[in-house]
Amino acid sequence: MSAPIALPAPDALLTDFYQLTMLQSYYEMGMEETAVFEFFVRRLPEQRNFLLFAGLEQVVNYLETLRFSQDELAWLHETRKLDTDFVRRLEHFRFSGDVHAMPEGTVFFPDEPVLRITAPLPEAQLIESRLINILHYQTMIASKAARCRLAAPGKTLVDFGLRRSHGAEAALMASRADYIAGFDGTATVQAGQRFGIPIVGTMAHSFIQAHQSESQAFLNFARSHPDNVVLLIDTFDTRRGAEKVVNLAKSLNKEGISIKAVRLDSGNLIELSAAVRGILDRGACEDIAIFASGDLDEYRLAEIIAANSPIDAFGVGTRLNTSADAPSIDCVYKLQEYAGQGRRKKSIGKSTWPGCKQIYRQRSTSGLFERDLVTLASETLIDGEALLVPVMREGRRITEPETLERIRERSSAQLESIGGDLSSLATNSTRYPVEMSKELEAMVEKVDKLFSGD
Question: Hey, what domains does the chain have and what are their CATH numbers?
Fold first, then answer.
């Protein structure tokens, strides 16, 4: 498997305009001391017991390549919304800060800083919008894909979501996030080329309809793709389609061609898969697998598995790549320290914990997650695994990009460690314990005394 290939760097103008207006003011006032911003989730969607971190590689690539092109600078000048001197200064803008983050594929919970930026205030400010955009989507999709993986252990899962994803980048990033969470492949060809994800595909109903007969369509496809014979059998009558496959298998065997699977894409998948399995087995086609697709998600997968359906593999698309039951996450990127002083927001329902932080994860004797402790980064002698690790220093990555295979291994190990209640599709009434250290609580009092808001 090849190393993940990053997408081309987005334009510097892929940001909110207020980031630029703040930058101009910061420069004018000389506010360029070191700031600490942290990306975290305020609260989980009702349908989630945990989240799975994804998107870090794209954030690092964005930060390393962030530049304003001459065309972008010329356009900003023409808008007359920003000072000419400020626009000229943007020509030399580069990200020169440090990044600490959880490794991709790490399970996390609310109020835990997943990524920390330490950089001059203008640099740390400008990147907010695009950074949230990248991390929000991939984390949202990876978290739902993880639930699909948990709902269908041992089954082959394939990303089928390109056509209804919300744009081309979303489709590619969803394929990546799905694979991190444990999916086995994708139907999106470019995701295979860019990220090395195994690509999977067979035929559409139109292929069958374009032929004079279903049997002829099956035969032509099998001879055209002798090493990948997966036949779609529900264009007309699913049971009759299965019978035709049995008849065809005998003649194809004489040509040295084996049918790998049949695919169901409509109807009652539990009933039809049982009927098709019976037809195949009675026809001495026990080795032909059953692949199913059509409006699937973790809830439907769980129903199918609970019914002991003989389906071997699933294509999951629309409801996964749009995260239909939880299409957004309450994630934010907030200033926690500036010029060596902790800072915090006190808005009702949106207050933050100040200071530069670390998270320590403690496990039970059986290896399951037991408790997370959020501390100030300066605290030492804390029991548990430190979750935030250095990723970039002075604007440059400090290690080689991780392969998706390595991230998948981490994700799998993390999902095995969350425990039964958290891995359930039902909302866990008792949330996973995330506690704040006494030093962090003391920091809140200190900051509140120093900064009253007046």
Answer: 19-141+326-450 (3.20.140.10), 202-290 (3.20.20.70)
